[in-house]
TrEMBL record:
Residues 35-100 form the DUF302 domain. This is DUF302 domain-containing protein. CDD domains: DUF302. PANTHER family: SLR5037 PROTEIN. InterPro entries: DUF302, TT1751-like_sf, UCP021774. Pfam families: DUF302.
Amino acid sequence: MNLALSTTLQSSFADAVAKTRIALQEQGFGVLTEIDMRATLKAKLDEDIEDYLILGACNPPLAHRAVTIDRQIGLLLPCNVIVRADTSTDGNVIVEAMNPDLMVQVTGEPALGPVATEAATRLRAAIASLGGVAD
């Protein structure tokens, strides 16, 4: 099982972030949290890395279904989506979403299967709508 659902875009970083937010919204996800890893690591450790943003995406109906099945599932929510500059190719940006099927694998709770399947379908659709090259 793959850890991530991903695509690579030929785009500016800012454009990739904007398109990713729209794609997530169109699939019923809101962005609850945002962590700018580049800024955080620079401020806290004086370390430089590529543009790297973690978006904590949540689809409330799916989150509710998952929490109803297993209260501890909140440890794996929200669905993290990463937008990061590709350090191997200038002008490319990688967009990755956590594979929701991991929830089922980690917990061993088969009742989470339908929730994970729907979340994965929606995240795949969001990523596919970006028009990049699937990884």
